[in-house]
UniProtKB/TrEMBL annotation:
Organism: Botrimarina mediterranea
Cellular-component GO terms for this entry: cell envelope; extrinsic component of membrane; macrolide transmembrane transporter complex
Parts forming coiled coils: 137-185
Subcellular location: Cell envelope
Protein name: Multidrug resistance protein MdtN
């Protein structure tokens, strides 16, 4: 008989809820009798979460796990290191890139500063030597040509003297060109090319350092470590099948409740909520609705109770819990949401 009365009551509530929904879908406020027939509490299953959803982290680069810096349950701060991969290869790439950058800077400095003083002095000495030898050769050529006119030397001897002068003139021109090159300032296009090489080398350093930083996984926010899914010596990376470390901000607790279709339109922001857990029968927690999903979605959380409907959709409702001592992230709970008709 009691079972019959219970079922009759539930059926009456469902019919009343359907009637209210139908009225409001037509833009008409339902009669007070239909609203009064609806229950003042909405029951729904839920699961405890932190102030953020669980965050599964993986290293951005592949590598061997060599150090765990925190333990499960530890509270960590934003940017705090959580684990490290073997970084020997990454460090070598950084050192190589920095050496290439230093070389590019040195080449530009040499281009701007020009040749060393000793090189310039040597070039000037070569010019003076070539000029002196050319002067001597030209003087000798003058005497040879005078003797040639008097047939005192052979034609071959005169040709050799002229060839020596031509050779020394070319040698002097080369020495003067070399000196001019050493004393000339750097060309604008050469400076731009040197600057481009420095920029490229600096980019390579930045990239190598960024890759090295990625061998350390850091916390993205203040949070608590919930789980590790890797062992020391294991090869892990961005394509690992499971998250290496799981975090959540548990400084404040929330409950994600799943309200079924007939009750979903009646949940309002700010509505008071009562929360209970089977494992904590002596505790009752209070909270309030802080956000509502704008859509219905397939049911993802079940209670396993005999009278539960499975082929239905639910609306996610986020409840902020006041206090929450004893609640654990991931714990399934029951929520009772008060309606405005209460």
């Amino acid at each position: 008989m009691a079972r019959f009365v219970f079922l009759t009551t539930v059926l009456t509530a469902i019919v009343a809820a359907s009637a209210v929904i139908d009225y409001r879908s037509q833009g008409v406020e339902p009669p007070l009798s239909d609203i009064a027939a609806m229950p003042s509490k909405i029951a729904a299953p839920g699961v405890v979460e932190g102030a953020t959803e669980e965050m599964g982290l993986r290293p951005e680069v592949a590598g061997v796990l060599v150090e765990l810096l925190v333990a499960i349950g530890d509270r960590v701060q934003k940017d705090q290191p959580l684990l490290r991969l073997d970084d020997r290869e990454a460090r070598l790439r950084v050192e190589s890139a920095r050496a290439d950058l230093a070389s590019a800077v040195a080449q530009r400095d040499r281009l701007i500063n020009g040749a060393r003083v000793q090189e310039r002095d040597e070039a000037r000495a070569l010019v003076r030597s070539a000029a002196a030898r050319l002067l001597q050769a030209e003087s000798s050529l003058g005497r040879v040509e005078h003797l040639e006119r008097e047939a005192a030397v052979t034609e071959q001897e005169a040709d050799d003297a002229r060839s020596d002068v031509d050779s020394l003139r070319a040698e002097l021109a080369a020495a003067e060109a070399r000196l001019a090159q050493l004393e000339a300032p750097a060309r604008e296009d050469e400076v731009r090319l040197a600057d481009a090489r420095i920029a490229s080398a600096q980019a390579a350093v930045d990239y190598a350092e960024l890759s090295h930083q990625k061998t350390t996984v850091r916390s993205p926010c203040d949070a608590q470590v919930l789980d590790f899914n890797a062992e020391l010596g294991e090869l892990i990376g961005p394509t690992s099948p499971t998250s290496t470390v799981v975090l959540a901000d548990t400084s404040r607790l929330r409950v994600r409740a799943f309200v079924e279709e007939l009750d979903a339109p009646r949940v309002m922001l700010g509505a008071p909520v009562t929360i209970t857990a089977d494992g904590l029968p002596e505790h009752t927690y209070e909270g309030r609705v802080v956000s509502l999903s704008p859509r219905m979605a397939a049911k993802t959380l079940t209670t396993g109770r005999p009278n539960e409907l499975h082929d239905t959709k639910t609306r996610e409702v986020m409840v902020e819990v006041r206090g929450g001592a004893g609640l654990i992230v991931g714990l399934r709970v029951d929520v009772s949401i008060s309606t405005l008709s209460e």
